[in-house]
Amino acid sequence: xxxxxxxxxxxxxxxxxxxxxxxxxxxxxxxxxxxxxxxxxxxxxxxxxxxxxxxxxxxxxxxxxxxxxxxxxxxxxxxxxxxxxxxxxxxxxxxxxxxxxxxxxxxxxxxxxxxxxxxxxxxxxxxxxxxxxxxxxxxxxxxxxxxxxxxxxxxxxxxxxxxxxxxxxxxxxxxxxxxxxxxxxxxxxxxxxxxxxxxxxxxxxxxxxxxxxxxxxxxxxxxxxxxxxxxxxxxxxxxxxxxxxxxxxxxxxxxxxxxxxxxxxxxxxxxxxxxxxxxxxxxxxxxxxxxxxxxxxxxxxxxx
Length: 304
Description:
By secondary structure, this protein is α/β, with parallel strands linked by helices. The chain has helices at 2-36, 102-107, 111-114, 128-136, 149-152, 163-180, 194-201, 205-211, 217-220, 228-253, 264-267, 285-300; strands spanning 66-70, 115-117, 142-146, 185-188, 258-260. Helix 4 runs parallel beside helix 6 (163-180) and helix 6 packs parallel to helix 10. Residues 1-49 have low confidence and may be disordered.
């Protein structure tokens, strides 16, 4: 009985040593792959053998050239003279010392030769792809986008751009940009709160007269009317702008080289000093300066 027990013990010991040897070889094999720098996922990996994903490229807070696309706001419309563009006070690329545009803040004296404004007064999101195509020829390191207000500012709420179309048009513009400029960064500004602009501007008689010329009729028509129908109309425009801003955020979030203002322009409370003295709806020179500040903070932030 004692000899049988000794024999069984020796068998179990041999099996244990063999199992230990196999485990040791397996551990050393894994360690060897790590040490050799092969397909190991690193210290925090799972040992699956798949390579680690590439790190997201860092956002460059000091781009060396800027191109702007968008609508009348980026053209400085009604900031200097009635019913006229004034690109020198543009928040994005203007040269005015009063505004201290994004391009000037980023590029200093070099802004004049390294910034370009391809925005067009009256442009809608459907026009953005064409603007992006023209801007791409300059090979800018940063493209600024402020578009969408004119998609809501239509003759009626029924004429506003459907949200699905707005999304498809913005996605097309971004695809075009990426095809031409795969490494260029994009800053997307949110659409201002049009209803707030109405509530501020309606206090000025001159502004109301200019509105009758056809500025954003879906929001500004019958400026003094506050009945149920007028309120519903303005709220419908407000809600559509909210939907557009969500599209801008979602589409931009899918592009690792795109950054929004986090809703800062939409949330900015434009007062009388920040509105055009001619139409009380578009930004004044001071309003353009506030937009430049918002853009600069977004573009130069270490993290979005």
